[in-house]
């Protein structure tokens, strides 16, 4: 693998409040899979000190897209990047989703957890039901509609779709395989609804290196400590919620 | 002909840049980036006699110019290391330093005894771990406590013994002198500084352990001062550590008296950082007409 | 009604944000930016009995997330302060803390005696200055030496006496306990960390004095940890100092046990920083339904 | 005074190797004099920690110009700013040149020491001889020619004008008042050639605050320690070279 590569921002647009879609030029052979991520550094000096993990949202010819929410200093600085600005990134990293699955498939995404799911949706060979929950504003809906069999939306504010949580309307019994990404309580709920099925979930944790060296992102799993950045970020439900 | 090689306690390093313990795993992750043989050496993730899972809760927290970590010595144990990691490391043509931690003197002694029989080149004794017998206070704080553990380890140790000092030591110079008196063949410094962060919304410490270890360029000026002071006080080789991010930093440590340096947190933000530092040192020596590191070591 | 006021050793501060010594002069430069009455208090540039010119050579050197300084107590002396600066400060409706340095116990005692008769509200004893009689080792390193100077000063001091601790103390908790035993009415911590930088082209230390003082956000995690440890150990009010750059940082110190905070290097990069911190603390308290600082002080 | 103000970069052009001219929008009442400076921060986080002192090079309606040389990290980051990027600055700071002078006047500038001299030149009511020395490439010459009575150029490489130092060809005897900015040895030489005359020199020192609070920039003068940022940066020759 190469180290951090310098590339150029093509566009960086606020598509909903505090949610940005950034496209960067990527003139390299791209070998990433859905669920993998990059460590991004959109600043030139050592504050922030660490790069930030961001999932691959989409891949086009010579272009990578990221979808991110401004949470703190790092994502704030990212949001200030303009066309032509440079950006350093390392990846693709981690273990992505297993796209070699069969049966009835659902994707359940909460909030910015939608980020890795578009590329996953596009990569799955079968048609998939897409459940997405938002707090208030929905985004990326058109793109999802293009590829999903059916789309189910919820908003906590009730501004679109079901008013409440996405897990309220998720029909677990219809599916054999479920992919999920979002807040941990949501994923836990999905897992509870899906016991016995194949559930793949994308985990988050604070990362220093992103490539397995620091052990900062390790989480407890059924088989001992595992690094979210290396053995993950995608884990099976059993691995993560083994305590139940 | 520029010579970046350096001999520390009888062990030959092809260059003075070593990967710091806990920031380089057992090398595997970095071998995706470059051949490990390019490095002067590798200090392994801290090894304890028994396998450890490490700490719960948040383990990494960014600070200005650095990071706090509370990994807590997650490691496969000495046996796991010997079985699973050492065979791989042996093939890499670089100096292997086994970094050893422990919570009791017996644990240190047993770990070192096990390592005696292996192909590792050097032992780096990490005395910053909390001493469970003394209620959690690290071995590395008081010179007398450090003397005790180092002299016990020295009795059994058949490899060159480097003692890694904590910057939290009450008096870094006394600590160094005490470790040398106890038989340390060399010293490395510094380990992480005790630091803390609080989540003001939760009104709780960020780390389950409350206190965590600070590393990165933020600590460099203090680490450099300690290396300088220690190098004036003792006559054994010193390895400088703390916030080294580029060749200039590395040369500062060498001019302050270090025989070699270790690069830690820098690896996280640039996996190639050590190679860049090695090249930088070489170019600097070329430009300035320096033929060997001994010409600039401790010039300050 | 939110109350940010705090009473420290009988002195009423309208809010817990104080300008740190040596980063605020005697206030004049900042009064171009805002009325000084907005501040909880001002700690003056370190005063010595006699006027001092300070150090030669480079005095400021930037590091990652902070700076090294070697100003060396350039100040007008106690008499110059009383004559030229105090009349101005008196008019500002904020707490005036006289920060006092010295190289001998006699010097400290005499300086404090002169200040007794003035309108300053509080004395902050800076024990980090090198003790010329003991060969340059600071009073603030060994608890016994600190005990000596603090108890002598306490004997004559008629103002509330805050002792400012050095993070270079061998053991910050023992140091704190020792100063309290010697009569300190309160403690402030931390002063700058001993650090160093080397000019690799010149092969010389950057500073004429070799060692300089490190401050800024780089030191915050260590300073916070020290404030936390000290606040658990002593029963006098504590003022937290070290790398405070925003209201979140200030609240971390308060939750770690500080009654007030001092803002130092931050003033340089944003002269309004203290006002922003005061406002930030107020908004936080409002949002979180906190009515007085005592509700969060030391909650961690 | 206001604190750090955020403004926008209008242009930032490399006019000679490593020498940049940056124009920024300055929609505030401007009260600065030649020789004064601003503390500039062209980065959003805390690395570099300190702002950098840069002289006022020129003033036009709603626009400030700076002329700077890339030396280290701070000026490097400045050089990467593009049109529309934001920049924070504090000023004008310090004590500028005394422009209320009479007689035959010369300006002697070395290298980037030319930066504060254009605005000075434009502000002096009388016509002035301008001496400027460069290492190799000369810059700002056309602008100087517009305002100066006569211009004298030297380059160490001999690529333009006199080959050597500017002080080689500086005719001290012709002038009553001399303004100088450049490397200290050059200014010392000017002073040596000008004993008895009025010599004003702009000094440099590392600065933390730029407004008189840290005492980091103090220098020894005839009348004790003085702050370059507050009592300076312009000092008279006697004040600085009092030891001779
Ligand atoms: C494998 C992986 C993929 C990710 N993909 C995306 C993505 O595609 N889009 C996206 O918007 N975000 C993604 N994230 C989350 C993103 O990395 C964090 O939001 C970001 O690092 C926050 O940085 P910051 O500097 O803005 O916030 P900080 O100032 O660092 O922190 C702000 C807040 O975010 C929380 N936080 C910080 N880092 C993390 C983390 N790693 N995990 C959980 N909480 C954190 C903190 O608790 C804090 O409350 C991903 C995380 C991981 C681990
Ligand atoms: C009042 C004043 C006005 C100035 N005006 C201009 C100007 O108009 N144009 C311009 O190009 N430069 C000017 N300078 C110099 C400029 O401030 C420095 O070149 C700049 O701060 C260097 O920052 P850096 O981060 O690029 O370099 P750093 O990485 O900080 O240092 C790089 C090199 O520059 C030296 N250096 C750093 N700061 C200073 C300093 N303040 N004085 C002397 N040497 C220093 C260091 O020794 C080092 O070798 C001025 C300085 C002062 C004090
Ligand atoms: C995540 C992490 C884990 C570490 N683990 C160890 C360890 O197991 N043993 C040890 O002696 N030092 C350990 N260290 C300390 C480093 O080896 C080094 O001494 C310290 O980080 C200072 O160097 P740096 O500023 O270059 O990072 C660790 C540091 C970090 C950041
Ligand atoms: C330039 C400078 C001068 C200082 N002078 C003094 C001083 O005279 N007396 C003193 O007690 N502390 C002095 N200090 C220390 C500060 O008051 C403060 O304790 C320290 O800088 C840590 O806080 P900070 O990180 O917010 O700067 C000085 C600090 C700086 C940066
Ligand atoms: S982030 Fe370093 S091991 Fe995962
Ligand atoms: S730069 Fe702070 S006093 Fe001049």
Overall description:
The complex is a heterotetramer, with two copies of chain A (244 residues) and two copies of chain B (300 residues). Chain A has 244 residues and is an alpha/beta fold. Chain A has helices at residues 73-79, 117-123, 141-147, 166-169, 184-193, 237-240; strands spanning 5-16, 19-25, 37-41, 52-55, 58-60, 63-69, 86-93, 105-110, 129-134, 150-155, 162-163, 177-181, 198-202, 218-221, 224-227, 234-236. Chain B is α/β, with parallel strands linked by helices and 300 residues long. Chain B has one domain (6-52, 76-193, 219-295): Alpha-Beta Barrel (TIM Barrel), CATH 3.20.20. Chain B is 32% helix and 20% strand. Chain B is built from nine helices and 16 strands. In chain B, the strands form four sheets. In chain B, strands 3-4-7-8-9-10-15-16 form an eight-stranded parallel barrel, surrounded by five helices. A four-stranded antiparallel β-sheet of chain B has the order 5-6-14-11, with no helix packed on it. In chain B, helix 7 (247-255) crosses helix 9 (273-288). The model of chain B has no long low-confidence stretch (mean pLDDT 96). Chain A binds chain D through residues 43-48, 73, 77, 80, 82, 84, and chain D through 43-48, 73, 77, 80, 82, 84. Bound molecules: flavin-adenine dinucleotide (2 copies), flavin mononucleotide (2 copies) and FE2/S2 (inorganic) cluster (FES) (2 copies). Residues 37, 48, 52-55, 67-69, 71-75, 112, 115, 204-207, 228, 233 of chain D line the site of one flavin-adenine dinucleotide.
